[in-house]
Amino acid sequence: MRSLALSFALLAAGSSAVTAASAPTCAKGLYMVVARGTEEPAGTGVTGNLTSQIAAKVPGSQVVAVDYPATFDDYEGSEGKGVQDMQKLLNAYGQACPDNKIAILGYSQGAQVSSDSVCGGGGSPFIDDKALSTSIMDNVVAVAIFGDPSHVANLTYDRGTSVRDGIFNRTEASIDVCKSYSSRIISYCDTGDIYCDSGSNTTVHHLYIERYGDDIVNFVVSQYEKAVGSSSSNSSSTTTAPPTSSATASPTSGGSGGRTNSTTSGPTKSASASTSPKSAANALTPAAGSLIFGVGLLAVLSQML
Ligand SMILES: *[C@@H]1O[C@H](CO)[C@@H](O)[C@H](O)[C@H]1NC(C)=O
Ligand SMILES: *[C@@H]1O[C@H](CO)[C@@H](O)[C@H](O)[C@H]1NC(C)=O
Ligand SMILES: *[C@@H]1O[C@H](CO)[C@@H](O)[C@H](O)[C@H]1NC(C)=O
Ligand SMILES: *[C@@H]1O[C@H](CO)[C@@H](O)[C@H](O)[C@H]1NC(C)=O
Ligand SMILES: *[C@@H]1O[C@H](CO)[C@@H](O)[C@H](O)[C@H]1NC(C)=O
Ligand SMILES: *[C@@H]1O[C@H](CO)[C@@H](O)[C@H](O)[C@H]1NC(C)=O
């Protein structure tokens, strides 16, 4: 069994263009792959707040950060590298640990890295990445993202108050792939967010963990428990920790913060006045963006540290 897994891992390493990291260790709990937001220091960024809470509820979990620049500078190149590394990690893990469960989390640029990895690249101006294979996706129990600049409004897996698309386009083909996984995805975006909602409020983009952190944690944990409960005869092992909401005052997710009531309207992409990809990409250049992103993020981080 072990040697079989190992040979799969070697196979994966051999067939991958990029040198694969050392063969993954199969986690008893969840294997969580995290893509941080733009200009967060290397590691998991603020999303680590959530993965540590999840790991506390799913013993034996492993958290791995996507290794990519996460810069504004050459956003497209940075994002593309993120997709490459995320897919490399997931392919390697899926091959080596075909019976184990995976969760994907991403914030901001890292949310786009996640959605492009899962659904295929949004198209020009981004690298035309291919979606992860369905066999790898079979083990992905949850995709939890927030502040995705390629957010598509009014899909069933959308959460938060936004009813507008993000600043980057996503192709219909890519949206179709996303939809095929809709029961496993949650994508948070609130009205006003300068990236995922094409809005003008510079604060909103930094409030997701505070507003929805508990919901995201509970979603990932329950998806894991559902998957393990139904796919293994080992149900007694999953000590279902009741979702003890952390001592922190419960976030303002009540009322307006609920999920979008997705009416029948599909993702009608009125291409008309929407920002062209190029100018949208320019909106994320350091000049315009890093001030907003960087300063806001520092504020958030300093609050947290
Ligand atoms: C989403 O739905 C709302 C309410 O139906 C609508 O006003 C809005 O235009 C839709 N957004 C997009 C991008 O289609
Ligand atoms: C967005 O994508 C749609 C569907 O692929 C396309 O028709 C439209 O022209 C694109 N819009 C922009 C601004 O690139
Ligand atoms: C931005 O959003 C935050 C959070 O909802 C709100 O408190 C603030 O007043 C908004 N700022 C502006 C300029 O609308
Ligand atoms: C995680 O986020 C919550 C809500 O914003 C905050 O109260 C808590 O201090 C954060 N924990 C860490 C470890 O950053
Ligand atoms: C079954 O439960 C045991 C004890 O919690 C655990 O060590 C083991 O990994 C579980 N096996 C599976 C297949 O979930
Ligand atoms: C969505 O809107 C419909 C029609 O207004 C309503 O019947 C339904 O309860 C709403 N669902 C949610 C989840 O708010």
Automatic annotation (TrEMBL):
Domain of life, source organism: Eukaryota
GO molecular-function annotation terms?
carboxylic ester hydrolase activity
Q: Which residues form the signal peptide?
A: 1-20
Q: What keywords appear on the UniProt entry?
A: Disulfide bond, Hydrolase, Signal
Does this UniProt record's set of keywords contain Hydrolase?
yes
* Gene3D superfamilies the record matches: alpha/beta hydrolase (3.40.50.1820)
Residue ranges of the region described as Disordered: 229-279
Classification via Pfam families: Cutinase
Which residue spans traverse the membrane? none
Q: Could you tell me what this protein is called?
A: Carbohydrate esterase family 5 protein
| Protein's organism | Trichoderma asperellum (strain ATCC 204424 / CBS 433.97 / NBRC 101777)
